[in-house]
GNAT family N-acetyltransferase (Roseateles chitinivorans), 197 residues
Amino acid sequence: MPIPPPPSLSLPRVHVLELQASDEDLLQRFYERNPLYFEQVNGAPPRPDEAREEIRDLPPEGWSFSAKRLLGYANDQGELVAMASLVSDLMAPRVWLVGLFIVATELHGSPAAREIYAELERWMRRRGAAWVRLGVVVGNGRAERFWERQGFSEVRRRDGISMGQRVNSLRVMVKPLDGGRIADYLEMVPRDRPGEA
């Protein structure tokens, strides 16, 4: 399938590419230039193999899905200014996961993250997404506020999630793209019901 069209961003000449194994160094450089996410969530800067692991990582055994894709948003110099990890049809048809969404620290406070995510959401919808699901670490205030402003609602919390050097609580958040009800989503994805194991 084609890559999303270049978003109409306030950033000049940003283009979108699908990241492959051959882009490991590009992704690793982005992570190392923008360690804030890893420090806040994992308690340490990105590991030297962080990009390789992200490229290879798949949902847990037994979770159904149709595809995993990594998208990079690159500037004129060919360096990434943002990245997104997506999984389609996760645990149910038309449920997409945003596994990771990082925008360069230098762009925090600008409209870039909102614009990139809005374009990404339109692209997912055109490919059949009816729901978007993600997890946000409790206490990562900037991320929690960002996703709430994008229209996501918490459906449950998961405690005791090991992430790097930290054990975090995770807010599982969902957004309907076609006017669906959260009750309908929870019927399709029992794992996300409050109180489920």
Remarks:
- The chain has six helices and seven strands.
